[in-house]
Amino acid sequence: MTQERDEAAGVPGAGSGRQARPKVVLGVSGGIAAYKACELARRFTESGHEVRAVPTRSALHFVGAATWSALTGNPVATEVWESVHEVPHVRIGQHADLVVVAPATADLLAKAAHGLADDLLTNTLLTARCPLVFAPAMHTEMWEHPATQENVATLRRRGAVVIEPAVGRLTGKDTGKGRLPDPDALFDVCRRVLARGVAGAGCDLAGRHVVVSAGGTREPLDPVRFLGNRSSGKQGYALARTAAARGARVTLVSANSALPEPAGVDLVRVGSARELREAVTEAAADADAVVMAAAVADFRPASYADGKIKKKDGQDPEPLALVRNPDILAGLSADRPRAGQVVVGFAAETDDVLAHGRAKLAAKGCDLLVVNEVGESKTFGAEENEAVVLGADGSETAVPHGPKEALAETVWDLVARRFPGQG
């Protein structure tokens, strides 16, 4: 694999001589979602990672050892008594650059939280000094049980990334939260965790709850028309994915975005500015940070027509009367539900970008304001962005043109420094 392909795949250190093939341990516990981990293993191997699958005995009831060996190109063991001369219960964890458990059952999470080690996978978790990622999958009742939630909180406090399960069809006829996220989305989280380095260093948001808004609000005029904007939601989704990879519990309030749901977030879909305000305010009640990346309409139609507004021959349409929408960012900044909450706003400007940005920062009262220039062919819908992050303390942080994930990383760096006690 060339350096260019390695870098595109997210392989850290590629071409630098540090390590050409990061070592990934894929732990698989005994849940029906184990079959999805096969695709995750394939994504890792195809992108240049060396993968060692460590299934539990229960996991082998769902996917056999031969499958894991064929997918990874490495032998498969489940017991500490196999290949004892290699001391696998110590060596596998010691040599790993990342350990990801997908799916992680309630039983596996409990063992990991309490330091139990009765098989090769749980021994590996104890000996690993690299980042740990858990992707839980179980029935909703099991996920919501106080014991499971306490175990998850314990793992997050220790710096592990515990990805929120998705909502959808479970086994049988059941539907709810507890579904293993899409393997591609899981791989994206793991790639980001690997890129940030050693255990703990990349999980500076562990134990934090953050709220991110994304997309563009739509203000209905009649059943078929609305006032809207060009926002795709890509920057907000990048912020949500990045926060999840850094260990945060993420609530993503999405306004009219068609983007796929990121792994590890609680997704709340909204339409109008008033719906967005209600959802963000509710989620912010226990949040450590709120990042308002959504493009919120300043105005809405003064009245709503129950039927489609018809065109009348020979007549111009009636003037459209508008009223102001609530200023969500200013409201959040002025009425913070908890001490130390960090509030971040976004300002999309078309001219005098920094001057308008500084004025808006003062008016809104937020801690940080991300200011960028927008237009019909700038920022909206693009994969790249560039911005200046203005701080209420007078700081300015320029983010050069690049992927929206890079801007997201900078924003979370600045947010993390502003948490109480961080200095």
TrEMBL record:
Flavoprotein domain boundaries: 23-183
UniProt-annotated binding residues for CTP: 298, 308, 326-329, 346, 360, 364
The reaction(s) this protein catalyses: (R)-4'-phosphopantothenate + L-cysteine + CTP = N-[(R)-4-phosphopantothenoyl]-L-cysteine + CMP + diphosphate + H(+); N-[(R)-4-phosphopantothenoyl]-L-cysteine + H(+) = (R)-4'-phosphopantetheine + CO2
One Pfam family hit: DFP
UniProt xrefs under Gene3D superfamilies: CoaB-like, Flavin prenyltransferase-like
SUPFAM superfamilies in UniProt: CoaB-like (SSF102645), Homo-oligomeric flavin-containing Cys decarboxylases, HFCD (SSF52507)
Co-factor note (free text): Binds 1 FMN per subunit.
EC number: 4.1.1.36, 6.3.2.5
Gene Ontology molecular-function annotations: FMN binding; metal ion binding; phosphopantothenate--cysteine ligase activity; phosphopantothenoylcysteine decarboxylase activity
A GO BP entry: pantothenate catabolic process
Annotated stretches, region: Phosphopantothenoylcysteine decarboxylase: 1-209
InterPro entries recorded: CoaB-like_sf, CoaBC, DNA/pantothenate-metab_flavo_C, Flavin_trans-like, Flavoprotein
UniProt keyword Ribosomal protein present: no
Keyword Magnesium: yes
Keywords: Decarboxylase, Flavoprotein, FMN, Ligase, Lyase, Magnesium, Metal-binding, Multifunctional enzyme
Region of interest (Phosphopantothenate--cysteine ligase), residue spans: 210-423
Cofactor requirements of the protein: FMN; Mg(2+)
Positions of region (Disordered): 1-20
A GO cellular-component term linked to this record: phosphopantothenoylcysteine decarboxylase complex
Metabolic or biological pathway, per its Swiss-Prot or TrEMBL entry: Cofactor biosynthesis; coenzyme A biosynthesis; CoA from (R)-pantothenate: step 2/5; Cofactor biosynthesis; coenzyme A biosynthesis; CoA from (R)-pantothenate: step 3/5
Domain DNA/pantothenate metabolism flavoprotein C-terminal: 205-416
Biological role: Catalyzes two steps in the biosynthesis of coenzyme A. In the first step cysteine is conjugated to 4'-phosphopantothenate to form 4-phosphopantothenoylcysteine, in the latter compound is decarboxylated to form 4'-phosphopantotheine.
NCBIfam families: coaBC_dfp
Family label: In the C-terminal section; belongs to the PPC synthetase family. In the N-terminal section; belongs to the HFCD (homo-oligomeric flavin containing Cys decarboxylase) superfamily.
Name of the molecule in the record: Coenzyme A biosynthesis bifunctional protein CoaBC
Source organism: Streptomyces diacarni
UniProt lineage: Bacteria, Bacillati, Actinomycetota, Actinomycetes, Kitasatosporales
Gene expressing this chain: coaBC
